[in-house]
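EI: anyone free to look at a 186-residue chain?
SC: sure, send it
EI:
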Amino acid sequence: MAKISDISVGSFIRYNGELAMVLEYQHRTPGNLRAFYQVKMRMVRTGRLQEDRFRPDDPIEIVRVEVKELQYLYRDGNSLVCMDNETFEQTYVPEEAFGEGIKFLKEGTNVKISFDGDTPVYVELPVYVDLEVTYTEPGIKGDTATKTLKPATLETGAEIKIPLFVDMGEKIRVDTRTGEYVERVK
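SC: here you go
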């Protein structure tokens, strides 16, 4: 067993019998009280956030996960099929592992998948993806002075807000973590 001081952001731990990923990790020493570690984690199976305090010498089980880069191929029911680019082996990954960014995922995109044994437990999407705008209302010429946004539908079916000067058929860069427009892509 490792101590809580051995973990870091991005580590996988076994907490109350469940696999969890550490999102935030802070060492705190409030006044003349004892020091503690404040840990914010996401439970892998349910996706819920959990926050807890630990003493510096508390034992914790660190889970070693293997990370592979796979290519997303297609959706099959409630799973997404991803392929290893070296062995061409296909893996079925539950869509819950992809989180909210799944709506920006298009076929052929490479994703990093963490495995606990043979079970996929966490998927890391690319931070930015380039997508084509399939539908939006036309903008009015000269409407670039304000930060007014309009709704748009992307090639994956996701709907986001974009600036008025972006038209249908243009490619834009989207942040998969927040779902926000970043810039136009040439």
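EI: The chain has three domains: 2-63, 66-124, 129-185.
SC: 👍
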